[in-house]
Amino acid sequence: MTGGGMMATFLALMVSGLPVAMAMAGAALIYVMLSGTLPDFVIIHRMYGGVDSFPLLAVPFFIWAGNLMNSAGITNRIYNFALALVGWMKGGLGHVNVVGSMIFAGMSGTAIADAAGLGTIEIKAMKDHGYSTEFAVGVTAASATVGPIIPPSLPFVIYGMMAGVSIGQLFLAGVIPGILMGATMMLTVAYFAHTRNYGRDVPFSASKLLKAGLEIVIVAALPTAIWLLWKLDVPGGWATIIVFALLLAMDKVFNFSAVMALLTPVLLIGGMTFGVFTPTEGAIAASMWALFLGLFWYRTLDWRRLIKISMDTIETTATVLFIVAAASIFGWLLTVTRVTDAVAEMVLAFTHDPYMFLLLANLLMLFVGCFLEPTAAITLLVPILAPICVKLGIDLVHFGLVMVLNLMIGLLHPPMGTVLFVLSRVAKLSFERTTIAILPWLIPLLITLALCTYIPSIVLWLPRQFF
User: Fold this and answer.
1) What CA–CA distance (Å, rounded) separates 330 from 27?
2) Where are the alpha helices (DSSP H) in 164-258?
């Protein structure tokens, strides 16, 4: 049996309805048994080796942090903060939807958590204010895709492990594209607000806007305050404790909406950028922060709900890691049987132009994203496409962002678009009407994808400043 036969077996198993992880593991097992060139235990050995990775420890903790944030009432606080910040604009709740998703993206790292958590609140509020269900679903689905782009990001962790790329660099690479995605979606909201004559959903309040602006200033000033104390010879640990103690006191006095939630991305990005902890340790820090907020600060979690959240996290983690394990043996066999070399030679025979390759890769990834869950797609595509990127001189950090963005857009497409299923259920809208509602929102996402693909500095400028 050849490597091509293994690929054909994988496709046949997947088309038959077998889950993609089972199809990859099954195709690898059939190849090993029929080829007779490898011992059977190599399957177990390679699958175990695929998940025996320090970076993958971040997976359960990022999932747990997102689940904790969703269940601790923090989504309501983010929504109220975004409402004070942009709710007074024309089409205000559409802008709130986008801004809320960008903030929540700095905590959850997954599009599904955003769609299921904030989406429930946002769609109900928009329908109550007279927006059509289709518009509410469209903007919610599009804004949910920013979840894995703005750090932290579960797909970046998987990609970084598969491609051997710094996860910290990938996280920083997502910041500017995430902001760009938010800006293009807000412009789309503004367009619909003016063409459909949407009004302002809340009256303009200078005091609320000032308070929201003050929260942003406080969060932005936090790293500077710690740095100044450190310059005054206060040890780094004590400087952090002093600043956080002052912040907690201010939160009690002024009853801020989202300062404590906004600190999560600052904690993660700041800690990784300045070498306080690795991305894996950052995932643990984010989980502990979410646990502190839910159990002790806001007191919106109890131990019974915490156990349920933890069991849900274990279930999701097991699914993700099984996909990684199955893809590990499948990807290794693709390399051993020289399938990846054959694909690279075929592509390079067609074109040596990096821009043409990126166009073809985008089309492939958009297509694959319609059928495969992002984790499975990443583990399948990286062994095939990453070697070609290296030969063409394409930065793997840049390509990682492009791949994840493609796969996030794929979440909005039938037949396997998970966000479609979640929002169809949340909005009580048919799958067909949900699909049609999302179509106009693909335009800002595809514009962002084109800019990030062909202007690499958008992606790479921030990582190059710190690495």
Assistant:
1) 8
2) 167-173, 175-195, 206-231, 236-254
In this predicted model, what pLDDT tens digit does every residue of 205-220 receive, in sequence order? 888 888 888 888 887 7
Domain boundaries, the chain: 58-303
Alpha carbon of 8 to those of 30, 67, 283, 436: distances in Å?
11, 38, 38, 33
Q: Degrees (nearest 5) of the Cα angle 347, 350, 356?
A: 80
Tally helices (H) and strands (E) across the chain: 24, 0
* CB-based burial label for 15 (10 Å; 0-12, 13-18, 19+): exposed
Q: Confirm if 131 and 431 have CB atoms less than 8 A apart.
A: no
For the chain, the average pLDDT equals: 81
Residue 419 tokens, joined: 């966000």
Give dist(CA 411, CA 101) in Å, integer. 16
Q: What confidence tier does 108 reach under pLDDT thresholds 50, 70, 90? A: low
User: Exposed, middle or buried by CB within 10 Å (0-12, 13-18, 19+), for 432?
Assistant: exposed
User: For residue 131, what is the DSSP state?
Assistant: -
pLDDT grade for 266, boundaries at 50, 70 and 90? confident
Stretch (H or E) spanning 392: helix 374-392
Q: Which position has the token pair 């095939």?
A: 384
| Alpha helices per DSSP H over 337-373 | 339-350, 354-369
Is residue 29 within 8 Å of residue 39, measured between CB atoms?
no
Local confidence band at 406 (pLDDT 50, 70, 90 cut-offs): very high
Within 8 A by CB and 6+ apart from 90, the residues are 190, 193, 194, 198, 199, 200
d(C-alpha 43, C-alpha 28), whole Å: 8
Tell me if 327 sits within 8 A of 50, measured CB to CB: yes
Q: What is the pLDDT of residues 140-156, one digit of tens each?
A: 888 888 878 888 788 88
263 — phi, psi (to 5°)?
A: -70, -20
Binned at pLDDT 50, 70 and 90, residue 181 comes out as very high
| 225, 238 Cβ separation under 8 angstroms | no
Write phi, then psi, for 394 (nearest 5 degrees).
-85, 130
At 428 the three-state DSSP class reads coil
Radius of gyration (Cα) for the chain, nearest Å? 23
